[in-house]
Specification:
Blueprint (H helix, E strand, L loop, with lengths): L7 E9 L2 E8 L2 E10 L6 E8 L5 E6 L1
Antiparallel strand pairs: 1-2, 2-3, 3-4, 4-5
Length: about 60
């Protein structure tokens, strides 16, 4: 690497055995937040996401 830090960062925090909370940042500003849950049988992953537009407008969606 040339010593230039990446402007994109991503962090996950465990909530319980099946859930994590995630935060994505660009240049230190939150651009999205999500909760990722794995079903008890391990067959389904659900992401509840809130993304933030250029004017900080919240855009929420669910991915299964």
């Amino acid at each position: 690497m040339n010593g230039i830090p990446t402007p994109l960062t991503y962090a996950e925090t465990p909530v319980d055995d099946h859930t994590v909370e995630a935060v994505g940042k660009f240049n230190g500003q939150v651009i999205n937040k999500a909760t990722r849950t794995i079903s008890a049988d391990g067959k389904t992953m659900t992401l509840n996401v809130t993304a933030y537009g250029g004017n900080r407008q919240e855009i929420s969606f669910v991915l299964v």
